[in-house]
Design brief:
9% strand, two-stranded antiparallel ribbon, four-stranded antiparallel sheet, elongated, alpha+beta
């Protein structure tokens, strides 16, 4: 079998990254400051987050080419809706409505005194006003032949019907189905209602674009009225509107941000603990902090950029920062690991070149595979998935670039501090050996710079020795 090369791509890339690492180490200030300035500029896009929020249930969470939408278009074309004749069965979409359920605390809700509370409840709803108290329910209601579509159960009680049959009652010349408006019903042998525990009242609004804004305001006023805690003696009331689901989703769009801050704090803590060293020169506490900060800047830049250009911000996008933080931490640990294997006596540009040569291939492959995975998600028929994948892809790109530039620059600056044998906190030069005339506390706090004299690299940490000497051999 002939000998074949398998490094035709890895070798030139390694050489390229080696030169890049040396270049970053030679001009760390520029590679450190430019990402900060870019992030500050792009971060201004977050001022548009409220304008870009789009959690419309149908638009974002249903397939763009779903058969139901094609069917609805067919129905709209062939069965046009008449706004003057309200009918549930002919509605193309869910109409604007408010609903209340009143439950009697003691007796029959259709009899006194519970029904008095129901009438008072109904009157309060009908008197809710919007638009500087100019518009009430009667101006916005769905209509049949010019009259508001009202609650038939209230009409029956007010008309003093001798008996109400359930579930179907004949009122005038029409049959009315009461199964949707009465609950906990007890009937006699003639199907007449003897007792009912609950009643449901519906307040349907016009389905016109001209009144849509006013209807939305009325529904908000309706919700505010009941949120204030209106009390009734003989009934308990619960309410719901056609906007309730949408409002709940909208109110939770940015709930992930506080959780991300908590996760961010946990990530910093974990990274700091992992990078702590007993040596006052080799301690990499600040490297850990800036490694996590690099991920944060990537999220700030990517989200800000997309918000600037008008990409919708959907609730699913709030999960993306957690993924990016994990990718950024992985990049940081790979970089730090390769840095620790370089010779501490070499110049910083050479150490950085060797670090980039070893680390950037794996970081690049990981970034490319992650981008490819999420790129396939953009082909989804669900817009919410498409936007999530787009935000994640751009974030991964920024995370990759900032790892090379921002974090690499700080690693180089930290390398200069180590080369000068300076303290990790005060940046003052300290001795590398333990002077005999100093106290033990002084030796612990003010001595550092030790390394492996045989390899020239930093001394391995206990955790590394554990995986090398105990865990690895036992896995096999």
């Amino acid at each position: 079998m002939g000998w074949r090369r398998t490094d035709c791509l890895a070798k030139p890339l390694s050489g390229l990254f080696e030169k890049l690492g040396s270049f970053v180490a030679s001009y760390p200030f520029y590679f450190f400051v430019i990402p900060l300035l870019l992030s500050a500029a792009l971060g201004g896009g977050f001022t548009f987050v409220k304008d870009r929020e789009d959690n419309n249930l149908e638009r974002q969470f249903t397939p763009t080419k779903g058969p139901s939408k094609a069917t609805r278009a067919f129905v709209m074309e062939n069965f046009p809706y008449n706004d003057s004749m309200f009918s549930y069965g002919r509605l193309y979409d869910q109409n604007n409505f408010a609903s209340v359920i009143a439950v009697s605390t003691r007796s029959n809700i259709l009899a006194q005194p519970a029904f008095e509370d129901v009438i008072r409840l109904n009157n309060e709803i009908l008197n809710i006003t919007v638009d500087n108290k100019r518009l009430k329910f009667n101006e916005l209601c769905a209509r049949i032949n010019g009259e508001c579509f009202l609650n038939v159960i209230l009409e029956l009680i007010k008309a003093n019907e001798s008996s109400i049959t359930f579930p179907v009652h004949t009122y005038g010349s029409h049959s009315v189905f009461l199964g949707l408006v009465l609950g906990g019903v007890i009937t006699d042998t003639n199907s007449s209602v003897v007792n009912a525990q609950a009643v449901k009242l519906l307040y349907n609004l016009e389905n016109k674009e001209s009144t849509n804004e006013a209807s939305t305001l009325w529904l908000r006023a309706f919700k505010k009225h009941f949120s204030a805690g209106t009390k009734y003696k003989h009934i308990n009331v619960s309410y719901y509107t056609s906007k309730s689901k949408q409002e709940e989703i909208d109110s939770h769009t940015t709930d992930g941000f506080p959780l991300f801050l908590i996760t961010y704090a946990c990530a910093i803590t974990f990274s700091v603990i992992s990078c702590l060293r007993m040596d006052n020169v080799r301690n990499k506490l600040w490297v850990a902090v800036f490694g996590v900060l690099s991920s944060g800047l990537a999220i700030l830049s990517s989200f800000g950029l997309l918000l600037y250009i008008g990409v919708p911000f959907v609730i699913t996008v709030a999960n993306s920062p957690f993924l990016i933080l994990g990718i950024g931490l992985n990049n940081m640990f790979i970089m730090v690991s390769d840095w620790q294997h370089t010779n501490v006596k070499d110049p910083v540009p050479k150490r950085m070149a060797q670090s980039y040569k070893g680390a950037m291939i794996s970081i690049t492959v990981t970034a490319l595979t992650d981008i490819l995975k999420f790129f396939t998600g953009i082909a989804s028929n669900f817009p919410s998935v498409q936007w999530f994948c787009l935000y994640t892809i751009i974030s991964i790109i920024f995370c990759y670039v900032y790892t090379i530039t921002f974090f690499g620059a700080f690693l180089a600056l930290n390398g200069r501090r180590e080369a000068g044998n300076r303290h990790w906190l005060t940046c003052m030069k300290i001795p590398s050996d333990n002077p005999g005339h100093r106290s033990q506390i002084c030796n612990i706090c003010c001595v550092g710079g030790d390394y492996d004299k045989y390899t020239g690299a930093e001394k391995k940490q206990p955790m590394s020795n554990f995986f090398k000497d105990y865990y690895g051999p036992n896995v096999g």
